[in-house]
Design brief:
Blueprint (H helix, E strand, L loop, with lengths): L14 E3 L7 E5 L6 H10 L8 E4 L10 H12 L4 E3 L16 H7 L4 H9 L3 H6 L1 H11 L1 H8 L4 E3 L3 E4 L16 H4 L13 E4 L17 E3 L4 E3 L12 E7 L2 E8 L4 E4 L11 E2 L6 E7 L2 E6 L5 E5 L3 E4 L2 E4 L3 E2 L10 E8 L2 E6 L2 E6 L3 E3 L1
Pfam families: Metallophos
Protein name: Metallophosphoesterase
Organism: Allofournierella massiliensis
């Protein structure tokens, strides 16, 4: 049976139980995406104390970053520490899901992943690897048996008296052992249709900023009423994305720390705050250009009907119509001369920066990159 057919049940080992001590901090991180150095920075910022704190890595350890082999080895080291739990994400199973029919296409489209790092280390040519992707995976599993076994043995759900952890989603109407193991690691937009859970559910996979249509923030999105915490900060997925570390204790969400990879810049000119009127997230990028005004384009967002001005370089014509090239908010943060910010992107005369966990725009000439 095709292991990705969505017809197979939760198997032994896909569900794990955990016990957290009263008062113990539980640190939850997801979607590391092969960024070992970033994870180390976050653990330092969280003041992670092995043997005292619990640590849960909620999937997507790998893919999209440049240090997948190193990240996997680091995860295996962490897994030997007390109170460390690591879950499978949809980007982690490439080496053991050898029968997945879509795998060759995925491998061809994503150059930054464990498969290609291992191929390079073993001297396997790209063309040869793609010509027999499934056979190449078996070769790599034999070359790296401990790593392959580690990934194959990762659970889909972690359950305790206070929490559920899953990479992407759970069905509130079903007990953990009756969940769909593919939906658990692949479902997008989970919060939009999720029910209410009796314990706090922590998920990653889908950037939390996609859930808020009023303002763009990359820190976790917490639905207190339904007991759902979405912690994916868009690391290596969103422009200006970050790696979030949620702090939990006794079944409650206390807050988070985060790190990103953005270069620093200094503000040369103050800017007054301009609240956001739009916050456009993937995949609703369809717009209608109304007027080109120098370096800006006045647009109407097809889904919401809202009008806004965006840097002209972000408005692109495709075979199916006009679209934004990326997520967009028209927020302009309050800035003081000399303030240090993160520089996420440039678009013509404008620069996308981050102040705290929130991206916004400033004239590019008002910044000096450090």
């Amino acid at each position: 049976m095709d292991p990705w057919s969505k017809r197979y049940p939760m198997a032994p080992g896909m569900l794990r139980n955990a016990e957290f001590k009263p008062g113990q901090r539980v640190l939850a991180i997801s979607d590391i995406h092969g960024c070992k150095a970033l994870l180390e920075r976050l653990l330092n910022k969280l003041d992670y104390r092995p043997g005292t704190d619990a640590l849960v890595l909620a999937g997507d350890l790998l893919t999209k970053g440049e240090a997948n082999m190193a990240m996997l080895d680091f995860a295996m080291e962490l897994a030997r520490l007390p109170d460390v739990h690591i879950l499978l994400g949809n980007c982690d199973g490439m080496n053991d899901e050898a029968e997945a029919p879509w795998l060759p296409v995925f491998l061809d489209r994503q150059p930054r992943q464990l498969f290609w790092e291992q191929c390079a280390a073993q001297g396997i040519d790209r063309a040869a690897a793609l010509a027999d992707a499934h056979g190449t995976i078996q070769t790599l599993c034999r070359a790296y048996p401990k790593q392959a076994a580690f990934l194959a043995g990762l659970p889909r759900i972690l359950e305790s008296e206070q929490y559920y952890f899953a990479h992407a989603a759970m069905d509130a109407a079903l007990p953990p052992d009756k969940q769909d193991p593919v939906e658990v690691i692949t479902r997008r937009g989970f919060l939009q249709t999720a029910g209410r859970f009796e314990r706090l559910l922590i998920v990653g996979h889908y950037p939390a900023c996609n859930y808020d249509l009023t303002e763009c923030r990359l820190s976790p999105y917490y639905d207190r009423e339904r007991k759902i915490l979405c912690i994916d900060g868009g690391n290596r997925v969103k422009t200006g994305g970050q790696l979030n570390g949620a702090v939990l204790q006794d079944g409650e969400y206390l807050g988070c720390e985060w790190v990103d990879e953005l270069p620093a810049a200094r503000v040369l000119h103050p800017q007054a705050e301009k609240p956001a009127t739009v916050n456009i997230n993937w995949p609703s990028y369809e717009v209608q250009p109304l007027q080109w005004q120098g370096g800006l384009c006045r647009c109407r967002h097809e889904k919401t009907g809202r009008e806004f001005s965006a840097p002209a370089q972000l408005v692109q014509q495709t075979e199916t119509g006009w679209r934004l090239a990326d997520d967009y908010t028209d927020y302009r943060p309050p800035l003081q001369t000399g303030q240090r910010v993160g520089l996420a992107a440039r678009a013509g005369d404008w620069a996308l920066i981050k102040t705290g966990d929130r991206p916004g725009w400033v004239p590019a000439e008002w910044l000096q990159q450090e």
